[in-house]
């Protein structure tokens, strides 16, 4: 019954649309000389409407509607009076219009009968969101989850489920918010802190910021072997220009990974890239004692080690200020550590110590990290 009603309605609408186009095409245009008379008539009508409105004979809204319609007709009549189309050209236009009006419905109906589904009822958004989740798109599922969490903001499990989805959609700031809520409600653990740090870093364009670094440290406090935290902390060292230290961190991680871990491939790739940058042959991984020693290192000790490396680089640049790459590493290191004032001071010293194009290069590099000299 529904398909039959659909086809009747479709046929009626198609016929109405065709007639709306065909009727004007089949009419003969009035003589151009009559256009001037029409213009005068419509102008008189406009004046009459204005007089009626002024004396209250018709309401203001009705007067405005009438004036709009008369103005439309006046403009058309004026255009007709000034146009002198050739009869042959008008015939061609009408012929083309007739063909288009006849062909388009036939083609569209033929396609719809082949690929369409006239018996399928309409489905508003609310109904799509209420249907079986296995039949929903990712966007619909996310919308459902967001609506649920808007009504139930203390649902820790909901935030924990939504966090990874936001990451896949590259909504990194939303992912970080989701993980913060999950940690606030369900407590801190290695997986949640690592996921939070990853989202924060992704939102910062891949930079392991001080906030991301702190999240990874909290993850390792729960589980010293948490692979994501260890991998990205080593990535932070690489961002600071400490390629050798980063490579060593990845090698230690590789030695500690279970044989069936999915982290082997990204770790191997990171090690290979670091060794290529260092120009060194592949090195053997650390022995069991080295791995155990690294695992036992406290977050405070690791932080102290990082601070010491940055301080050492700073001292070297004071002695040799004409080192563009060194200044870039130092500025990035201070940004990663969250020491914005030190980063600005380092930029100022770099500009004072470098010459020529190197000044522009270090300024552009610092600007990408959001560091500018005061003043």
UniProtKB/TrEMBL annotation:
It is found in: Cell envelope. Keywords: Cytochrome c-type biogenesis, Repeat, TPR repeat. GO terms for biological process: cytochrome complex assembly. InterPro entries: C-type_cytochrome_biogenesis, Cyt_c_biogenesis_CcmI, TPR-like_helical_dom_sf, TPR_CcmH_CycH, TPR_rpt. GO terms for cellular component: cell envelope; plasma membrane. Coiled coil: none annotated. This is Cytochrome c-type biogenesis protein CcmH.
């Amino acid at each position: 019954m529904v398909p039959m009603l659909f086809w009747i309605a479709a046929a009626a609408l198609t016929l109405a649309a065709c007639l709306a186009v065909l009727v004007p095409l089949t009419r003969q245009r009035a003589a151009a000389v009559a256009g001037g008379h029409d213009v005068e008539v419509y102008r008189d009508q406009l004046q009459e409407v204005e007089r009626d409105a002024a004396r209250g004979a018709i309401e203001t809204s009705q007067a405005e509607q009438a004036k709009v319609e008369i103005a439309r007709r006046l403009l058309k009549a004026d255009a007709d009076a000034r146009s002198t189309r050739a009869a042959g050209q008008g015939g061609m236009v009408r012929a083309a219009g007739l063909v288009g009006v006849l062909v388009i419905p036939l083609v569209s109906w033929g396609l719809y009968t082949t690929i369409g589904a006239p018996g399928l009822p309409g489905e508003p958004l609310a109904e799509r969101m209420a249907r079986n989740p296995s039949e929903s798109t990712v966007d619909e599922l996310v919308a459902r989850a967001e609506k649920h969490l808007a009504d139930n903001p203390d649902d820790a499990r909901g935030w924990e489920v939504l966090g990874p989805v936001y990451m896949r959609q590259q909504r990194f700031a939303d992912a970080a918010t989701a993980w913060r809520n999950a940690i606030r409600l369900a407590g801190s653990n290695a997986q949640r802190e690592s996921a939070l740090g990853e989202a924060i870093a992704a939102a910062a364009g891949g930079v392991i910021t001080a906030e991301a670094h702190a999240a990874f440290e909290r993850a390792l406090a729960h589980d010293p072997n948490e692979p994501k935290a260890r991998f990205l902390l080593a990535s932070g060292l690489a961002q600071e220009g400490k390629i050798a230290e980063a490579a060593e961190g990845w090698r230690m991680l590789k030695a500690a990974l279970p044989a069936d871990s999915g982290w082997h491939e990204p770790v191997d790739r990171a090690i290979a890239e670091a060794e290529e940058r260092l120009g060194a042959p592949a090195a053997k991984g650390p022995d069991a004692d080295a791995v155990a020693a690294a695992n036992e290192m406290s977050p405070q000790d690791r932080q102290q080690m990082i601070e010491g490396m940055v301080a050492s680089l700073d001292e070297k640049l004071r002695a040799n200020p004409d080192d563009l790459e060194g200044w870039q590493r130092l500025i990035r290191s201070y940004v990663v550590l969250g020491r914005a004032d030190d980063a600005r001071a380092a930029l100022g010293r770099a500009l004072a110590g470098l010459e020529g194009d190197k000044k522009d290069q270090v300024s552009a590099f610092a600007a990408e990290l959001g560091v500018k000299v005061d003043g």
